[in-house]
């Protein structure tokens, strides 16, 4: 990986006790490190510890009263691309993911994003589908492809690791390839970026 490799944040969207997101994110992070096109890191929303949105001004102004928002802004601002690892709750995405997105605005804009969804029979697809208009409204550039993991409980080993089904590594690596293509191709269209 070169020193100028784009920075990828793999964001664990679930914050509840007993969640499976960290195991899925660790698997995806390992594939991103093997890919070597990104400087890839893990961000766990449970560790970030955002309260329910408590800023008095709209995030588009970029003026934050609270230290937790300023920390989150810095984490998000420093990345060039994102992968959200999200569970499906009740045919949609979870509240912690939406809350984390809503805290900020300009920090997300113009950057590519992809998703790893997991759940039951729908494999997180409804969560990912519901998130697409949200990230588009924030000015992000969603990748067409996603990773979908059905019956997540069956894919977690007794020691808590995620064990991918056959073909899932290749699917995830294709998503990383696509995200990398966007990350290296989009800088000139991002707000505030220099052209030429």
Summarize the model shown.
This protein is an alpha/beta fold and 196 residues long. It has helices at residues 21-35, 45-48, 67-77, 95-102, 125-137, 168-185; strands at 7-12, 39-44, 81-87, 112-118, 141-142, 147-149.
Radius of gyration based on Cα positions: 16 Å
Task: Indicate the proportion of strand residues.
Answer: 15-25%
Query: How many alpha or pi helices?
Result: 6
Q: What percent of residues adopt helix (DSSP H or I)?
A: 25-40%
| Head-to-tail CA distance between termini | 25 Å
Number of strands: 6
Structural write-up:
The chain is an alpha/beta fold and 196 residues long. The protein has 6 helices and 6 strands. Strands 1, 2, 3, 4, 5 and 6 form a 6-stranded parallel beta sheet that branches. The chain starts with 6 loop residues before the first strand and ends in an 11-residue tail after the last helix.
Descriptive key words:
alpha/beta; globular; six-stranded parallel β-sheet; single chain; 35% helix; 6 strands; 196 residues
How are the secondary structure elements laid out?
Layout: E1 7-12, H1 21-35, E2 39-44, H2 45-48, H3 67-77, E3 81-87, H4 95-102, E4 112-118, H5 125-137, E5 141-142, E6 147-149, H6 168-185
Parallel strand pairs: 1-2, 1-3, 3-4, 4-5, 4-6
């Amino acid at each position: 990986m070169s020193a100028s490799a784009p920075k990828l944040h793999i964001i664990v969207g679930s914050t509840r006790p007993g969640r499976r997101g960290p195991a899925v994110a660790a698997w995806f992070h390992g594939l991103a490190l093997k890919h070597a096109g990104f400087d890839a890191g893990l961000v766990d929303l449970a560790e970030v510890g955002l309260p329910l949105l408590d800023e008095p001004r709209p995030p588009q102004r970029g003026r934050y009263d609270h230290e937790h928002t300023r920390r989150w802004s810095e984490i998000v601002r420093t990345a060039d691309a994102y992968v959200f690892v999200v569970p499906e709750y009740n045919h949609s995405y979870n509240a912690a993911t939406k809350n984390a997105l809503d805290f900020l605005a300009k920090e997300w804009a113009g950057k590519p994003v992809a998703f790893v969804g997991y759940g039951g029979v729908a494999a997180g697809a409804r969560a990912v589908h519901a998130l697409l208009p949200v990230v588009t409204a924030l000015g992000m550039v969603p990748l067409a492809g996603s990773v979908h993991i059905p019956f997540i409980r069956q894919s977690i080993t007794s020691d808590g690791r995620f064990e991918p089904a056959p073909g899932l590594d290749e699917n995830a690596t294709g998503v990383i390839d696509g995200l990398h293509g966007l990350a290296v191709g989009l800088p000139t269209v991002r707000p505030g970026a220099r052209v030429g």
